Every structure is written in C-alpha cells, then in structure tokens.
Description:
By secondary structure, this protein is an alpha+beta fold. The protein has 2 helices and 6 strands, in the order H-H-E-E-E-E-E-E. A 6-stranded mixed beta sheet has the order 4-3-1-2-6-5.
Amino acid sequence: xxxxxKRLIGTGAAVAACAAALLGPGAGSAGAAERAHCDxxxxxxxxxxxxxxxxxxxxxxxxxxxxxxxxxxxSLVQTYYRTEYLDGGVARKKTVHDETVRCLGxxxxxxxxxxxxxxxx
Length: 121
C-alpha cells in the first residue's frame, strides 16, 4: 500500500476516534471495562505526533466487542521517523515500559494484533 494512502486511512480513523472522545468522558469509556494486555508492541511516531496504529505481540484480547479497548503494554517500542514518510528514514527508537494505550478496534492474526484508531496519549 502506498505510504500516503496508508497515512490518510490512519488519519481518518484518528479523526473518528477523537470525535467520539470529544462527546464526553462516558461516551468512550463505557465499553472499556475489560482491558487487553500485550507483552510487546510497536508504534510509529511521526513529526506531527504518534501514529494511530499499534502492532501488539502476545496479546490477550477480551471476548466481548467493546467500543474502546484499553491495552496495557509491558514494553512499547516507539519508532521516530524524520518526516511523515517511511522513506524519510528513522531518527531514533525509544522503549517505554508499562504503557496504556486506548484504541477503537483490532484485527487479530495468530500472536499479532493490529490495534487501530489509537488516540494520542
């Protein structure tokens, strides 16, 4: 997928997620009673802020569908890019521990979970 198209799709999900969050504190947290957990995850950090997708590994996902998911991550690797494009190169990587991320949904495939619509923390 073309990097620009990928960023546009991610931006659209972020706008939808942020719009729902602005409706009120109860609107986004009503369905987040159960938390998910990932041992390790990666998130792209762009010059304008964090990406809206988080790729988790070895995750436990709640059985019920929720409006929002709170994901507790043991180790979150943040890759900082020099520009808004993948071909701009990596500036640095940073690992943070015991981080909580809030996301709108997920797509699970074996031991990897693609969390999308993740709002900036």
